[in-house]
From TrEMBL:
GO biological process: regulation of carbohydrate metabolic process
GO MF annotation, one: protein serine/threonine kinase activity
Organism: Pelovirga terrestris
Coiled coil: none
Cofactor: Mg(2+)
Protein name: HPr kinase/phosphorylase
């Protein structure tokens, strides 16, 4: 399970969260594991069972106005009850003035109290996106990821079978390399898998006999991209090991990654076969399927119709005109 500390969120600069620490520094090492955020309005109103302490609590204008309209001792009591639940973090939006009792309670319980200049809606959107990027499941796998006609094609296979050479041919055709050799895979809600290159290997590809090539420098920035949704998994197998390869296109096999079922095809590799072309056609075929057109099923329907017509004519010729 991925985790992230409140200190990591506070020190994050690229996400544009613009946070400052006001109190509760001892709680900065608290870890969170869910990319979910809560506004604790119901908890402040006395419905404490609705509170999820493991979620970051965002206090906007509504929450602070609600506290300001309470008697001071009652507002302090509500905040004390909130902090006693050991919430992981409190964040005030819109650079609003912080009531003294709020700072005191956060400091007393070691609850990190942060503030941002952003509006609540904007901040929640940015923070949710950041947490999803950092907290949802990730893994690494061996292969090549290429963007072909907007279809993210993950090419897999044993070492030396020609994955990188296939990807290089696709790049020469104008398609875009995402990652070669090691791919970092991220799950993103609701059920999407993204792939991206590792920092050190970004834009690089190994071609046996040539060594390490920088695809971005060789073919320009239009030949690469940072990350891509994975839409299709292609496994290259040696000719002769292709007993399970689909011959008619009717089988809908899938590849499971982080619980997501992805379309999957196996392509035999042999001298004389243009694998780049076959992979490109596989991507075009997947694009058609996503648009609701299935070539193999259409052909099967035409074939069954023709067979039914032939059977009817044959029966008619034997039985005669009285066939119902």
């Amino acid at each position: 399970m991925q985790t992230l500390s409140i200190r990591d969120i506070l020190e994050e600069k690229e996400a544009g969260l613009d946070l400052e620490l006001l109190a509760g520094a001892p709680g900065l090492e608290t870890l969170i594991s869910l990319p979910r955020i809560q506004k604790p309005g119901l908890a402040l109103a006395g419905f404490g069972d609705s509170l999820h302490p493991d979620r970051i609590q965002v206090l906007g204008s509504t929450e602070l106005s609600f506290l300001a309209n309470m008697p001071a001792d009652e507002a302090e009591k509500r905040m004390r009850e909130l902090c006693q639940r050991r919430v992981c973090c409190l964040i005030v939006t819109k650079n609003q003035p912080i009531p003294k009792f709020l700072v005191e309670q956060a400091e007393s319980f070691g609850t990190p109290l942060l503030r941002t200049r952003l509006l609540s809606s904007d901040f929640i959107s940015l923070l949710t996106r950041f947490l999803e990027e950092r907290l949802l499941p990730t893994s690494t796998l061996h292969g090549v990821l290429v963007d072909v006609l907007g279809i993210g094609v993950l090419i897999q296979g044993k070492s030396g079978i020609g994955k990188s050479e296939c990807a290089l041919e696709l790049v020469l055709r104008g398609y875009r390399l995402v990652a070669d050799d090691v791919i970092r895979v991220r799950f993103k809600l609701p059920s999407v898998i993204f792939g991206e290159g590792m920092d050190l290997l970004h834009y690089h590809m190994e071609i046996r006999g040539l060594g390490i090539l920088n695809i971005k420098h060789l073919f320009g920035v239009s030949s690469v991209r940072e990350r891509k949704k994975i839409d299709l998994v292609v496994e290259l197998v040696k000719w002769g090991d292709d007993k399970d390869c689909d011959r008619h296109g009717l089988d809908e096999t899938t590849y499971q990654l982080h619980g997501v079922e992805l379309p999957y095809v196996r392509i035999p590799v042999a001298p004389g076969r243009n694998i780049g072309t076959i992979v490109e056609v596989a991507a075009r075929n997947q694009l058609l399927k996503e648009m609701g057109y299935h070539s193999a099923r259409e052909f099967q329907g035409l074939l069954e119709k023709r067979m039914a017509e032939a059977a009817h004519l044959h029966a008619h010729s034997i039985i005669g005109e009285n066939l119902e």
